[in-house]
Amino acid sequence: MITLLSGTNRPGSNTRKITALIERFYLQMGVPCQVLDLADLPAEIFSPTAYAEKPAAFAPFADAILASSGVVIITPEYNGSFPGVLKYFIDMLPFPESFENRPVCFIGLAAGMWGALRSVEQLQHILGYRNAHVYPAKVFMPGIGQLLKDGELIDPALVERLQTQAAGFAEFVSRLKA
């Protein structure tokens, strides 16, 4: 099972729209996947006491990562980085097993011209520290507001790059599992 992590808790985000498209690509290939949307995080996870004892409502999120054969992180760029809620989510996951030897893939999107390049680079450092296997083919989507119409990508070349990435990551996951 590949987990698609929608890396923001912003309501109605473009990140969630892209995550839904990526989910379709995996399902069309017959690759089991699940979506984890940070907008669904339980409020009690943000209590200062959550560091010492994780709330029971967080368990399904941690369990989804621990049970996944690979994780695709779809991240926006906010203020030159990835959203704080994504870092907090990573911090709340069990260490080191959450990403230890787990394949990870990145998709970045942003209103600006770099398409979340900085966000993905920063996440690569964090997940490299966590000993994840980083899939080398990343996809960046600059000017995301002009690329989406009614929740669909209107750039056929970008759709093809995302589909190619999904197929390659599924194979990467399969080979690492073997």
Automatic annotation (TrEMBL):
It comes from the Bacteria. This is NAD(P)H-dependent FMN reductase. InterPro entries: Flavoprotein-like_sf, FMN_Rdtase-like_dom, NAD(P)H-dep_reductase. GO terms for cellular component: cytosol. Pfam families: FMN_red. GO terms for molecular function: FMN binding; oxidoreductase activity. It comes from Prosthecobacter debontii. Residues 2-141 form the NADPH-dependent FMN reductase-like domain. PANTHER family: CHROMATE REDUCTASE (PTHR30543), NAD(P)H-DEPENDENT FMN REDUCTASE LOT6 (PTHR30543:SF21).
